[in-house]
Amino acid sequence: MPWLALPFSDTKAKEKLDQLFDVESIPALILLDQKCKTITADGVDLIKAYGAEAYPFSKERLVELRAEEDANRLSQPLNSLFMSADRDFFITSGGRNVLVSELVGKTVRLYFSAHWCPPCKGFTPQLIKFYSDLKNQGRTWRSFLFPVTEMKSPYKNILEACHGLLCLTETEWRKLCHDTLKLKASQP
């Protein structure tokens, strides 16, 4: 690659650039436009995420890429979200396996919750009532509970009340939340 380099001995220039661009860790890739205005200080992350597709690194291009990523993420079929090489099923609250293929094309809900979370504690009973009301009207769909913390009896009660399917190992759950759905949760 035809790199240009600052002489290693020019510590003053290096310090000035570190301060100017707030370089706190390496690798760091700062992208500048023709007028030396910062396009982004997250060049490393952009190249990791998008590769050459990120070029020319304009704000418009980045908005486009993120919109495409969101559209792709939100339109995935169930099997691509939940199946793995080791597993093609979900586990019901009663311990029965349900094949992912049985749910393709059906409406599902994903409920992310934590037993320590006050808003979750307030909403969960409403969700259970909602499910019960729909069931009484003959209108149901499958529920997936994704506990943010380890499985404890409150979650098992929710699964039973909503006929939920507990489907993922903790590793699979974290991958789904963080990598696929881009969810972030704060914990106490």
Automatic annotation (TrEMBL):
<dbReference type="InterPro" id="IPR012336">
    <property type="entry name" value="Thioredoxin-like_fold"/>
</dbReference>
<keyword id="KW-0520">NAD</keyword>
<keyword id="KW-0560">Oxidoreductase</keyword>
<dbReference type="GO" id="GO:0047134">
    <property type="term" value="F:protein-disulfide reductase [NAD(P)H] activity"/>
</dbReference>
<dbReference type="InterPro" id="IPR052259">
    <property type="entry name" value="Nucleoredoxin-like"/>
</dbReference>
<keyword id="KW-0677">Repeat</keyword>
<dbReference type="Pfam" id="PF13905">
    <property type="entry name" value="Thioredoxin_8"/>
</dbReference>
<protein>
    <recommendedName>
        <fullName>protein-disulfide reductase</fullName>
        <ecNumber>1.8.1.8</ecNumber>
    </recommendedName>
</protein>
<dbReference type="InterPro" id="IPR036249">
    <property type="entry name" value="Thioredoxin-like_sf"/>
</dbReference>
<feature type="domain" description="Thioredoxin-like fold">
    <location>
        <begin position="105"/>
        <end position="139"/>
    </location>
</feature>
